[in-house]
Specification:
Radius of gyration: 18 Å
Order of helices and strands: HEHEHHHH
Number of domains: 1
Structural class: mainly alpha
Strand order of the largest sheet: 1-2
Length: 174
Amino acid sequence: MNNHTIGKATLIVGVLSVLLMFNACGGIGNNDASGVGGARSQNSSPREIVDFAHIEKEYQESVAKLSWPEKYKAPANLVGEEKDGQFQSGYGDTQASNYYQCAWERQWLDTYASDEQAASKALHELEKVPSMPFMGPDRCDDATRNFFKEHMRKAKLGDPSGFQQDVQANCPVM
C-alpha cells in the first residue's frame, strides 16, 4: 500500500467511527428508535424526523425544566446546528441534557476540594443523569452509560479523573 491509499483508508475509518459514536447517543440516524436488536424500552416511543424549529423548542423547554449550577447559564438557543437540517425528535432534549451533565460535572470539579456542600449538590444532580431520557436505550449505548457510572463512582471517592476526562472530551468551552 502506498501512503495515499493508507491515508484514504484512515480517513474512511475515522469518518465511520465518528458517525457510529455520534449515533450512539441520539445524534443522527433513521426513524427507528429501537435499541439493540429492535428491543424498545418501555418508556420509548417512535422518534420522528423533525425540523430545526421543533428541536430548538424542545431544547428550550428542556433547559427551562432542568436545574443548573448557580453561576451557570445554558445557551438560550441551540448552537452550531444547521437550521435547514432534519433531526430526530428528542435531539433538542439530548443537547440540553448534555449541557446539564457538563455543567454539573464542572461544578463538582470546581468545588470537590474546597466546598463540600456545593460538591455534594453537584453529585446529587449528577445522580439524576442515568434516569434522564437522553441516557435511555433508545438514545444512548451501554458503553456511554457504563462510562458515566464509572465516573460517578470515582467522583464519590474523591477522584476527579473521570469527570476531567469527560469534560475535556465532550463538553463545550464555557
